[in-house]
Amino acid sequence: MDRDKLWPALLASLGAFWLSLEASYQLLLMLQGIDILTGLIAGRHTTDGVKSDVMWAGIRKKALSWLLVLLAAIVGSYVVSTTGSALPALIGPAAALAFCGVEVVSVLENAERGGVDAGVIGRIRSAIATVLKAPPKE
Fold first, then answer.
1. What would the pLDDT profile of 35-80 be if each residue is shown by its tens digit?
2. Among candidates 25, 7, 14, 2, which has minimal Cα distance to 94?
3. Cα–Cα dist 101/111, whole Å
4. Cα–Cα dist 118/132, whole Å
5. Cα torsion through 95, 101, 107, 109, rounded to 10
6. In 84-117, alpha helices (H)
7. Structure confidence at residue 94 (pLDDT)
8. Count of other CB atoms within 10 angstroms of residue 48
């Protein structure tokens, strides 16, 4: 393949893959990227600096979370195919959203380590808790 056509083909393939993902999976990928970036920034801010072993431990956790999301999606797909009910198809996206919550907490912790005022982080956590506890609107 001609090198001039390789990059556009690669970008088109990545774009098609991205658009084929459920919104919850896209959100999880974005939050994991933000978590890695805030971790790097916080690591540079502290006296310890960026530690590659800590970074790789975080990446391993992210890979394991994706394996669990994949497992949930496979189980959901199996249950859909055997029962005919569409509801179990939400198992994979629900698992991804659960891990999104973990990533948000990690981003807030990184921001606090990076020097963001702890009071601001506390208010953000309180706002998130309020939204999560709010009864559904009719």
1. 999 999 988 887 677 778 888 998 999 999 999 999 999 999 999 8
2. 25
3. 15
4. 21
5. -120
6. 91-113
7. 93
8. 11
pLDDT tens-place string over residues 77-122: 999 889 888 888 899 999 999 999 889 989 988 888 888 887 888 8
The token pair at 102 is 């973990």
pTM: 0.78
| The residue type at 34 | I
Question: Token pair 């195919």 is at which residue?
Answer: 81
Among 87, 89, 96, 90, which residue's Cα sits nearest to residue 69? 96
> Residue with structure tokens 């896209």?
26
- Both tokens of 122, joined, read 């506390």
**47 in helix, strand or coil?**
coil
Question: Residue 75: which of 65, 90, 60 has the closest Cα?
Answer: 90
Residue at token pair 């893959």? 17
Give the separation between CA 138 and CA 101, rounded to whole angstroms: 25
